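Reading a protein record of the kind used here takes little practice once its layout is understood. The reader may check this reading against the record printed directly beneath this paragraph.
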Amino acid sequence: MDSLHRPGALSSADRLSALRDRADAAGAGGLSLRRKDLLIGATVVLAGVALVFALMMNKPVSVTTSGEIQPESVKQVNTSRELLANEAFIPLSVEIGHFPPKLEVGHIVEIAVTPGLDGTGEARILQEEATVVDLSTPNEVSTSTIITVRAPKKMLIDVARSGPLFVSHIGDSK
């Protein structure tokens, strides 16, 4: 007799039959391994979708950094007043940190221009003073603040040629 056909030894058919019986017992009394994996995967996906939905529904938290304008300091000034001859309302797109954090409507400011994207020009402070008439806070898309100033029209050309702008507070409106 060879070692595979000894009396009392299980044949391969008997071994397969025993494994199938165990799998059938597990399937009848509980979930199979494949079904458990699918259930866990579906739970993880649903939890992820719920988390994304919860994050989208929450309002963004306001974080204050240097140069950012506090919402309570944003005020509107009546811009319908007539401008004097050679004056204009000039919007300035200023990056956070390039202006004082407590800048408010009515402040008198000086504007520093820097070389443009083409590298021409020089960094300098414009001689004309300007009065802040409006401020807008940055949002999720933009990191710059729009500061609208009342200033001489000729300042617009210097601002348009400039690279990043810098604004300094030099006084309050008179």
In short: The chain is about 30% helix and 25% strand.
